[in-house]
């Protein structure tokens, strides 16, 4: 290689080495990690006089490792804390919290936001606006709503997980509640602010009082809140209807359906998986309608019936009952969203994407059309693939041998 070619290659090699070094520097700002307090959860509501009540949940580094300062006794010194303030708006409340802390608050690890009833009923645009203007805020943070006071969540004993955010994120990852994020609310806002959000419920639980007598509450999924125009409606979905909402939104991996046997009326429980749902707009002769089509596979979990699963005709009868039961469940969910005048499953977006001209012709009266006029067909097809290790109920077979 000539001396001239070496001279030409040297700047390129030097630039490549410099770029490699910039990737291993580790620090991207002048603020050190040990000067920050990372917010994992936000609790927010309005007081009776209209003020903002804001709490932030932050882990405490000096209690994170067992055996260190305060870390040897989780009950006496939990590895996290809540700090709360009241103010006229979210920004002022956040500033008041920051003033009292020795570390700078960071939204880089915020995973959940829990919203109280008063705030939800008046609208959560202020929350979405605040989160949207924080560069470090995760748009994937999940939103929950509770009809209780938000500070009741602080009374929940953490037995299986160390942090509240871990419990709430697990609800989503195990598909027991809706995966509704800040991003979802932000997108829904541009189409009228209609969406579903998971509900949290709290109650007394004497069986956990031995774990921590001061924290004898339990927390669970209580269904779903229906938002219309960015505000929570007075109509909600209960736990059973929540399953239908998960089914329609394709957020459900499996479900258990209990039906009555077509032969003797005894219970048959089936588990369904492979659930797939599509929402399709149809424009025909100037009329707009929708079709919700869902498919799933099922197998028998338990049976108290004398039904003979070796008979193909019996299998078809069971499948029809499963289809009808699921269709009724989905219809009930759709009807509730229509009562609340909430296009919770964003059918308007499907119509806009596929038939923009049809959408432009009806968008000014979409709410009323969706609530009272639009035909919505629901078609469910469940195939019973497995009937278990036996064809008849073991209980029935035992009774016959006596």
From TrEMBL:
Domain of life where this protein originates: Bacteria
InterPro entries referenced in this protein's UniProt entry, alphabetically: GerAC_N (IPR057336), Spore_GerAC-like (IPR008844), Spore_GerAC-like_C (IPR046953), Spore_GerAC_C_sf (IPR038501)
Pfam families: Spore_GerAC, Spore_GerAC_N
PROSITE patterns: PROKAR_LIPOPROTEIN
GO cellular component: membrane
Record membrane topology: Lipid-anchor
The keyword Methyltransferase is assigned to this record: no
Domain Spore germination protein N-terminal residue range list: 30-200
Subcellular location: Membrane
Ranges for domain Spore germination GerAC-like C-terminal: 223-388
GO biological process, alphabetically ordered: spore germination
Keyword terms, alphabetized: Germination, Lipoprotein, Membrane, Palmitate, Signal
Family the UniProt entry places it in: Belongs to the GerABKC lipoprotein family.
Protein name: Germination protein
Source organism phylogeny: Bacteria, Bacillati, Bacillota, Bacilli, Bacillales
């Amino acid at each position: 290689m000539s001396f001239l070619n070496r001279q030409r290659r040297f700047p390129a090699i030097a630039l490549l080495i410099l770029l490699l070094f910039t990737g291993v520097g580790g620090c991207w700002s002048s603020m050190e990690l040990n000067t920050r307090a990372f917010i994992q959860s936000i609790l927010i509501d309005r007081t009776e006089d209209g003020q903002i009540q804001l709490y932030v949940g932050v882990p405490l580094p000096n209690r994170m490792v067992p055996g260190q300062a305060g870390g040897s006794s989780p009950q006496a010194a939990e590895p996290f804390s809540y700090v709360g303030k009241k103010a006229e708006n979210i920004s002022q409340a956040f500033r008041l919290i920051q003033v009292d802390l020795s570390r700078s608050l960071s939204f880089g690890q915020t995973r959940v936001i829990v919203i109280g009833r008063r705030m939800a009923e008046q609208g959560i645009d202020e929350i979405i606006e605040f989160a949207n203007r924080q560069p470090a805020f995760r748009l994937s943070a999940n939103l929950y709503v509770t009809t209780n006071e938000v500070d009741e969540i602080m009374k929940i004993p953490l037995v299986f997980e160390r942090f509240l955010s871990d419990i709430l994120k697990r609800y989503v990852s195990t598909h027991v509640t809706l995966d509704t994020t800040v991003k979802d609310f932000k997108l829904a806002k541009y189409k009228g602010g209609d969406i579903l959000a998971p509900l949290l419920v709290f109650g007394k639980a004497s069986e956990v009082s031995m774990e921590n007598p001061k924290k004898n509450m339990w927390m669970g999924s209580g269904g779903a809140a229906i938002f219309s125009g960015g505000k929570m409606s007075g109509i909600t979905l209960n736990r059973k209807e929540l399953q239908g909402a998960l089914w329609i939104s394709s957020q459900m991996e499996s479900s258990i359906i209990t039906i009555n046997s077509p032969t003797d009326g005894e219970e048959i429980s089936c588990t369904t998986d492979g659930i797939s749902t599509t929402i399709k707009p149809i424009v025909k002769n100037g009329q707009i309608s929708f079709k919700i089509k869902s498919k799933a596979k099922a197998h028998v979990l338990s049976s108290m019936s004398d039904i003979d699963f070796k008979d193909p005709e019996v299998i078809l009868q069971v499948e029809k009952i499963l289809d009808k039961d699921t269709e009724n469940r989905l219809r009930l969910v759709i009807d509730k969203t229509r009562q609340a005048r909430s296009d919770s499953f964003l059918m308007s977006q499907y119509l806009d994407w596929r038939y923009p001209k049809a959408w432009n012709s009806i968008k000014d009266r979409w709410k009323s059309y969706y609530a009272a006029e639009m035909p919505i067909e629901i078609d469910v097809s469940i195939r019973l693939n497995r009937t278990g290790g036996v064809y008849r109920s073991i209980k029935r077979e035992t009774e016959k041998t006596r």
